[in-house]
Amino acid sequence: MCKSCFEELHFILDGCVKCGKPIINHSLEKQEISGCSYCFNKSFYFDRAISCIEYNDTSKKMILGLKYNNKTYMSKYIATIMKEKLEVEGLEFDYILFVPLHKRRLKKRGFNQSEKIAKHLGKEISAQVIDSIYRKSYTKMLYKLKKQERFQELKNVFAIKHSKNLLNNKNILLVDDIFTTGATTNEISKLLKETGVNKIYIMTLLTRSSDSYVLE
Question: Where in this chain does the entry annotate a coiled-coil region (predicted)?
Fold first, then answer.
C-alpha cells in the first residue's frame, strides 16, 4: 500500500463497547450503558466486537483487492493491523477462529480471506488457529441483501466440525474481514455459545460508522 493511500485510512481510536463501530459525539458513559446508535437496545451473542479501520473508498479497495483480485499478500498486512489493535485492547483468549466460506464459494474463489488473515494473525501473536466451523448451506451474497434479510439468510447455516469439548468454557477470537450488520458473526456466536464457549470477541478489519445507521 502506498503512503498516500495509508494516510486516507481512518483508524478507529474509540469504538462502541458493544459493536466496535466508531463513535461520534457520544460520551463514554452512554456507550457503556446503551451502545451506539446502531446497537442501541440490540442483543448480541458475542461479548464484544472490535474493528480497526472505518469503511471508506480506500479501505474498501483493500478488502476487494484481497477477495476478488487475488491480492492475498494483503492478508498479512491486515493481520499486522489487527495485532496492533489487539495490543491496545488487551483482550485475552484461548483460540482464534475464522468465518468459513461454503465449499462451493471456496472452490470458486480459491481461498478464504478470513482464514488467511486469521492464520497470519495467529503467527503474529503466537495463538492457535482452529478450523472449527463450517457452512452447511450455500447462501446468497450478503451485500445484496437488506439487514433483516441477512439475518434470515444465515439462520442455522453454520455447524461445529469437531468435538464440542475442545471449545467448552474457552474464550474465542472470531476473525472476519468486515463487520456490517453483524449478522454472520452473531449467528456463529450463537452456535458457539450453545457449544459452551465462554466469551466471544469479534475481530474485523473494517466497519461502518455507527452514525450511518438509523435507530430501529
Answer: none
Can you name the residues that pair with 54 across neighbouring β-strands?
207
> Which of 204, 202, 178 lies closest to 45, judged by CA?
202
Distance CA 197, CA 191 (A): 9
Q: How far apart are CA 55 and CA 52, in angstroms?
A: 10
Cα–Cα distance for residue pair 212/179, rounded to 1 Å: 13
Q: Averaging pLDDT over each range in 34-43, 66-75, 142-151, which range is the top one?
A: 66-75
Residues 107 and 79: their CA atoms lie apart, in Å, by 23
Q: Are 10 and 212 in contact (CB under 8 A)?
A: no
Is the pTM above the cut of 0.90?
no
| Number of folded domains that form the chain | 1
Domain boundaries, position 105:
3-212
How far apart CA 170 and CA 198 sit, in angstroms, is 5
